[in-house]
């Protein structure tokens, strides 16, 4: 810890002062920022080992979404950096989500100094280990050398998707990926980039559902110093950052209509104009978009531009849900089992036949992501040589039992599962979404769909 450089971002000056005093003499360097707007610029100048990041910055807003947004941006560019989230007690659920996204840990306000130092020291050790392993201190963006791979699979439906990917990747055609939450749209997008002629350049990913309202334009198009109150430096937007590479817009259905019009202009003119400037800049990007919503229905409802849909939909790839590709489940199980037995130092742990039967019989409403989380939990909970059905959380076992007794349609089954989850968690929608392995927005869409 003594050789570590630490950067702290919090809009509360008292918090910054308290942490500076706590860390004084215990580490090599401490840098404080009252706003995250210049965070990426600062990280680009100095090789930091640890970031302490507050969850909220805007007055009157305590959702924690700002912290999640900046966490994703930081880890996209600097995956070796350890991040500790700072949150009020009421934001613990969101802080847990942040840990799942890649944060090293979280600390609640007010904290105990001894506990804070312990968490910081542990995170610094992790960061140092990552850098030694990689022999590098930073990665500017996720690009063609990403280690994420598309599982080959055994099912016919997945093999068809892989065939389409191989044909489309070598072109520069815009691609729209659709499918339920958790089916692997981001992984497919990475695979397309890795097989393309642009693979030596950056693949820039933007989660449109995570961008704070009011930051869409600056995030995508960039801004000039002085363009608005907090614009203290010129900033390149994600579109420019993806020049000569691939731009991946996840959850594009969340893009506001005014931004849709601006994006359409960029795609038509192949230029981008930063906020506060008048001169357009040429850009050459390959666009991949993804959504778990139904864009044609959004067009009919006036929530999505029809001309933009045509522009992004040159090639449409529908990612099948896991329940339609159950032949792939054993391969996924073995892949995730290897990953998490190594992570949690439980090498040699295997899965029993009865546990595999349980996984094959389950409907997986959260798709591959839910399966991944289920295997991770089972590895953590198991204290035997083989994972048993009891090592999976009761939700999976209970859902299997209810599905065996259910004779309705898939939609009726899904509605029933959501109703059961809402009752179990007494209307706590964050807990319901986490249990079902879907986002809150997807949950709200389904609640509206089923009139719950």
Automatic annotation (TrEMBL):
Domain of life from the UniProt record = Bacteria
Gene Ontology biological process terms, A to Z: phosphorelay signal transduction system; regulation of DNA-templated transcription
Q: Which UniProt keywords apply?
A: ATP-binding, DNA-binding, Nucleotide-binding, Phosphoprotein, Transcription, Transcription regulation
Specify the protein name: DNA-binding NtrC family response regulator
Example of a GO MF term: ATP binding
Which residues, renumbered to this chain, carry the PTM 4-aspartylphosphate?
54
Q: Which CDD domains match?
A: AAA
Domain spans labelled Sigma-54 factor interaction: 151-380
Which Pfam family, any one, appears in the UniProt record? AAA_lid_14
Biological source species: Natronoflexus pectinivorans
- Transmembrane stretches in the record are none
- InterPro entries documented for this protein: AAA+_ATPase, AAA_lid_NorR, CheY-like_superfamily, Homeodomain-like_sf, HTH_Fis, P-loop_NTPase, Sig_transdc_resp-reg_receiver, Sigma_54_int
User: Which residue intervals define the domain Response regulatory in the entry?
Assistant: 5-124
């Amino acid at each position: 810890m003594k050789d570590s450089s630490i950067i702290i971002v919090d809009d509360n000056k008292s918090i910054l002062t308290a942490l500076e005093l706590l860390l004084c003499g215990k580490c090599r360097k401490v840098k404080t920022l009252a706003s995250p707007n210049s965070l990426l610029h600062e990280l680009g100048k100095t090789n930091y080992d640890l970031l302490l990041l507050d969850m909220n910055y805007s007055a009157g807003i305590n959702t924690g979404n700002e912290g999640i947004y900046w966490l994703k941006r930081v880890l996209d560019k600097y995956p070796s950096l350890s991040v500790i989230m700072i949150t009020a007690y009421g934001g613990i659920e969101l802080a847990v989500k942040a840990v799942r996204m890649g944060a090293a840990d979280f600390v609640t306000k007010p904290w105990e100094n001894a506990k804070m130092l312990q968490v910081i020291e542990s995170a610094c050790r992790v960061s140092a280990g990552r850098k030694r392993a990689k022999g590098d201190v930073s990665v500017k963006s996720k690009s063609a050398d990403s280690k994420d791979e598309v599982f080959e699979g055994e099912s016919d439906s997945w093999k068809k998707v892989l065939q389409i990917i191989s044909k489309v990747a070598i072109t520069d055609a815009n691609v729209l990926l659709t499918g339920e939450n958790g089916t692997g749209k981001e992984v497919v997008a990475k695979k397309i980039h890795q097989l393309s002629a642009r693979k030596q350049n950056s693949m820039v990913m933007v989660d449109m559902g995570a961008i704070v309202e009011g930051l869409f334009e600056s995030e995508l198009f960039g801004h000039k110093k002085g363009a608005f109150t907090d614009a203290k430096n010129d900033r390149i937007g994600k579109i420019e950052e993806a020049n000569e590479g691939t731009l991946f817009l996840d959850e594009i259905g969340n893009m506001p209509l005014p931004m849709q019009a601006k994006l359409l202009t960029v795609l038509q003119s192949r230029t981008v104009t930063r906020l506060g400037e008048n001169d357009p800049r040429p850009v050459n990007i390959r666009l991949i978009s993804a959504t778990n919503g139904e864009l044609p229905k959004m067009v009919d409802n006036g929530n999505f531009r029809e001309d933009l849909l045509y522009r992004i939909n040159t090639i449409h790839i529908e990612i099948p849900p896991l329940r339609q590709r159950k032949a792939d489940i054993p391969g996924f199980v073995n892949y995730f089992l290897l990953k998490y037995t190594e992570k949690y130092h439980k090498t040699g742990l295997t899965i029993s036949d009865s546990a595999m039967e349980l996984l094959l019989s389950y409907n997986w409403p959260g798709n591959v992501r839910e399966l991944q989380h289920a295997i991770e939990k089972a590895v953590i909970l198991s204290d035997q040589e083989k994972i048993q059905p009891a090592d999976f959380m009761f939700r999976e076992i209970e859902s299997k039992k209810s599905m065996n007794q259910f004779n309705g349609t898939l939609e009726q089954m899904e509605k029933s599962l959501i109703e059961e989850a809402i009752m179990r968690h007494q209307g706590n929608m964050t807990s319901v979404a986490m249990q079902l392995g879907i986002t809150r927005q997807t949950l709200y869409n389904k609640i509206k769909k089923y009139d719950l």
